[in-house]
Write a structure and sequence with these properties.
Two copies of one chain form a homodimer. Chain A is α/β, with parallel strands linked by helices. Chain A has 18 helices and 18 strands. Chain A folds into four domains: 81 residues, Barwin-like endoglucanases; 48 residues, no CATH class; 234 residues, 3-Layer(aba) Sandwich (Pyrimidine Nucleoside Phosphorylase, Chain A, domain 2); 80 residues, Pyrimidine nucleoside phosphorylase-like, C-terminal domain (Aldehyde Oxidoreductase, domain 3). Helices cover 42% and strands 20% of the residues of chain A. In chain A, helix 12 links the parallel strand 10 and strand 11. In chain A, helix 7 crosses helix 14 and helix 7 packs across helix 16. The first copy, chain A, is globular. Chain A starts with a strand and ends with a strand.
């Protein structure tokens, strides 16, 4: 069957076609199905959107990705095929019945995800299957390799490439501090971070208050060459396109099966060519994992990393509150600047940043065992780490600026003389998100007191910031209802 | 944040908005996420599509559903909110951990599906959860009620409304024959059918060779009033919108959890007001279920139907081959016409149609116990059933026409003197689909011999039909490779 092409001047980030609703119903094609479009010997898998009146039965509208992929001129014709279910679908079905997958089967799924042959829903079935049935070490290693091999590789070629990762959940940016310290010590740290998924800010969101974070490969390499490091967003580099899609589906249900978490992190570290890897695993009531889960995770990380020649160490720390004072992009990066400048504040964040930096310096033999913390402290206090940070920010097209209060704020005061008995980090993140973070860089919350500290009645406990009056009001309501801070 | 509205003259069947890609990344909004659009006190949940160059950061393009829902004029502005995860998401997460859901929780999920608040991927998680954890009788009953109550009701108000359903998988159209016979006997059968999901033709696809199948409620009621029956497509009536969406997601992986199957069927029967229900449950190697599964299914069907005042009987039949000679829309409806006209062919289809009709006549007390088959045979042989069928086809805007060979065909001949030892119905369906069914009404396969029949070398075994030369070739290749028929 031939269809007349209607070119949409619209690039959807994936090859999208729009067909007539009645034609779709008769052909048993549904929204988000995939069809194979063919023209002049070329073919392309496309995602179906369905429209009622925009398009006739004999037409097909195509996004620019399709027009480019098939070299379609105006008014040219295409034929299409309803694609038989990709092999992956049967494999996913098998995994849902808890079958152990072979290397070939895992590669089939990952390749199909990358070439758009699986719908988001099919990926959700895969995530469910892995969540319900788990994966053994061999499967996780194969998953890691498949994600790595279908992604982009940075190819820096240096034995001293090191990386750091946090499994997340606790507000507070140790990464910019660690990267600055370790780059001064001579490590190469091509740090690419994510944006916030469920928190108020990812490292990329926080850095973006000061400078750019989205670079193409050539520019990124220049930044790294100049500084031994970068603090960029990994999203547009395509280091692990399969994983990017899987994460998007996982976050819908806040699912993060252990095996997928490990494969996702290691594949990206392989892609930047890391030989050394330090993983921050916060555990505890407010973190993503319990102590026992953290220990299991650490063991698997080390075991699987070894298969790929990465020397990995996991640092398990009990984490019960935000590390700095700020929760929100600009507030969190301001805490970083405080520490780098030597202002006497944010002790928890300072301590943890030095701990992680020290461990990474020991892991890479830049410091002798037991001497990493000393070296890290020395570099931080010398001011060289701040100089390095300023240099990275400059290379990334920005400059240092401090937190400036947005239009609206609300200071919440202590209702009695008391001690801070609990700070729920998930609720603190949600509060900052309701106030507008991460899109509103200045939005968020500032903690005047930390856990177990005393406060006097009427003294400021928390300041909530927002560029929007209504969002501030919503955040204040949320604070009153959900009580992210408890006094005793 | 305010966005300028760009009206798309494009109705997507669901409220779709398109936003700028960079803006989306910074706001942590992804393709297929839902956002709440607000304008002048009205609000609407919309599905996000992302575009690169088609739209600026301060604009939002909206489909006609959004424009109408929010009464947007050209160039008006809207604000939006990233919607907090609907409550359903946590409930689905709980079900994935095998929690038994309350009535309230099930209603929450079904309502969220209907109002577009859940993405297809979230529905896939729900289907996975039900597949892995099952549902108890109470949950299935609540699911049935929720799907029924969120759907459209036909409101015919007649005590004699009966319906028939097949859980499917075996080619052969008993439905038009049963509907014609039972309507002659005085039952009201407002039969709505689906289109093909994995087979070569649904009853709606087959009927469409002769007449229209897609009617609005008023016209459908006229057709039913005139004939005591209809043979229409249920798709556009909205009898069970939640189920329509769930089925779309289930079919991706060919998952059909038992509890969902039961709820789906019963909700639609409640919607047409059926008081009597006959369910055809084919079992065996080529069917969807084993004998044991069929028995379990039958028990649950009867138990849950009772809760809703529907008298239900399940007919379990061992099914190992297509019932008629044809596989494909026009070929299958031609088998129906043969039987209604009394042509001596398609014995299996005739026998099963009479059996099912007889059982339904007994269930509804139109025939005494044990006398249903006699009555059904009498009505069929009197020619009255054919008259009824012609009348339905005429009311639905068509007329009887016989199968006409399409442009291309290939007769496959027996390679030796032999007996037909196996006919794989799944592969027969796939063969017909590859030849172009169900979109190409004439495409499909015609079986010259049935199971256990003898054939002489060189005699025709199967004829494959298609409107497309290349599709015919693909089908022939498939036949050679997959051998849907085996000779011994």
């Amino acid at each position: 069957m031939k269809l007349k092409v209607k070119l949409l001047k619209f690039s959807a980030g994936r090859p999208v076609v729009i067909i007539n609703e009645k034609f779709a119903a008769e052909s048993s094609i549904h929204i988000d199905d995939r069809i194979l479009l063919k023209s002049d010997g070329k073919s392309l898998i496309t995602v179906v959107e369905v429209a009622k009146d925009f398009i006739s039965r004999k037409e097909i509208a195509v996004s620019t990705e399709v027009a480019e992929g098939l070299d379609l001129k105006k008014k040219s014709e295409v034929t299409f095929e309803i694609i038989p279910q990709p092999k992956s679908v049967q494999i996913i079905h098998d995994k849902l019945n808890c079958k152990i997958l072979s290397k070939k089967e895992i590669f089939t799924i990952i390749k199909d995800i990358v070439r758009n042959a699986l719908t988001e829903s099919e990926i959700a079935y895969f995530v469910s299957a892995v969540y319900k049935c788990g994966m053994n070490i061999e499967e996780v290693a194969n998953m890691t390799e498949a994600i790595y091999k279908t992604g982009f590789k940075l190819n820096l070629k240096n034995k001293l490439i090191a990386d750091k990762h946090s499994i997340g959940g606790i507000p507070g940016r140790t990464t910019p501090i660690l990267v600055s310290i370790c780059a001064v010590a001579g490590l190469i740290i091509p740090k690419t971070s994510s944006r916030a998924i469920t928190t108020a800010a990812g490292t990329a969101d926080a850095m973006e208050y000061l400078c750019g974070v989205d670079f193409d490969v050539d520019n990124l390499k220049k930044i790294i060459k100049h500084n031994n490091a970068c603090l960029a967003w990994g999203g547009s580099l395509g280091l692990a396109p399969a994983d990017d899609k899987i994460i998007q589906v996982e976050k819908l249900l806040n699912l993060d099966p252990k095996s997928q978490l490990i494969a996702s992190i290691l594949a990206k570290k392989l892609a930047v060519g890391a030989h050394y890897l330090l993983i921050d695993v916060p555990y505890g009531k407010n973190a993503k994992v319990t102590k026992k889960e953290a220990e299991g995770l650490a063991k698997e990380f080390v075991k699987i990393s070894k298969k790929f020649g990465i020397k990995t160490q996991c640092i398990l720390t009990k984490s019960e509150e935000p590390l700095g004072n700020g929760v929100g992009p600009a507030l969190e990066i301001d805490d970083v600047i405080k520490i780098l400048k030597g202002e006497s504040d944010c002790h928890l964040l300072k301590k943890k940043s030095i701990l992680l930096s020290g461990k990474l310096l020991e892991l890479t033999n830049k410091a002798k065992k037991g001497k990493g913390i000393d070296l890290a402290t020395k570099i931080l206090e010398s001011g060289k780490a701040f100089e390095k940070f300023k240099s990275i920010v400059k290379s990334q097209g920005g400059k240092i600026k401090r937190f400036q209060e947005p239009k609206y704020k609300k200071i919440i005061k202590a209702s009695k003389n008391a001690k801070i008995s609990e700070i729920n980090t998930k609720k603190m993140n949600m509060l900052a998100r309701i106030a507008g973070a991460p899109l509103d860089k200045l939005a968020g919350a500032y903690l005047h007191k930390h856990l177990n500290e005393k406060i006097k009645k009427g003294n400021p406990l928390l300041t909530i910031y927002s560029e929007s009056k209504s969002e501030l009001e919503h955040a204040v309501e949320y604070f009153k209802k959900e009580k992210p801070l408890k006094l005793k």
